[in-house]
Amino acid sequence: MVGKAVSGLVYEGTAKALGVPTGGGAGESFSVHPEELHSRSQALAQHAETMEAHATDFTNKLSGVSFA
Question: Model-level pTM?
Fold first, then answer.
């Protein structure tokens, strides 16, 4: 609880120093651009597929190794 309060104070202080509004009301400083969201989600999906391929390759290479 204390950490959250301190974090909020730090955020507010930083926002004030930068001249950023800290209103906190719904929708005041947050927006989503659907095209950007879709594009980034596709990029993340591609990264996940690449990681899966690397994991499979790594698993296959280690299958013949014995640590005994």
Answer: 0.49
CA distances, 54 to each of 23, 38, 63 (Å): 45, 24, 14
Type of residue numbered 64:
G
Residue 12 banded pLDDT, cuts 50, 70, 90: confident
22 and 16 Cβ atoms separated by less than 8 Å: yes
Residues near 15 by beta carbon (within 8 Å), at least 6 away in sequence: 21, 22
What does 11-52 look like in DSSP terms, one character per residue? Answer: HHHHHHHHT------TTSS----HHHHHHHHHHHHHHHHHHH
Is the CA virtual torsion 23, 27, 28, 34 positive or negative? positive
